[in-house]
Amino acid sequence: MSEQPTTTPTGTGQLRTLAVRITEDLRAQLDVLAQLTGRTATEEIRMALEHWIEKTKADPVILRKAAAARAEIERDAQTRQRAIAAIFGGDEAPKPDSQIDETATGRPAQRRGKPAGE
Known about the structure:
The chain contains four helices and two strands, in the order E-E-H-H-H-H. It is mostly helical. Strands 1-2 form a two-stranded antiparallel ribbon.
């Protein structure tokens, strides 16, 4: 039987199954808490994960790592775009940040070196 996607209670996305191995003791505690709160064990786990993710998103170490990962992704994307442009030609290659024109960003172009026409 295949799993049918469902949406979250808030309708913000599809639910996917995640199998997690836990000890019998932890499972017993989870079941007791679920019974006491009137929620299912699945709801308790989802709430705990959401809380943990929100807490982790505020961790300065994680924020620095995320910024570094984002910068690496951007560098890799630019390298790949330049490679495609080199192979197939055209204007697909991204311009360096200092040469992005106003039409792309809504800001005046920032160029280094001699002014145009010199």
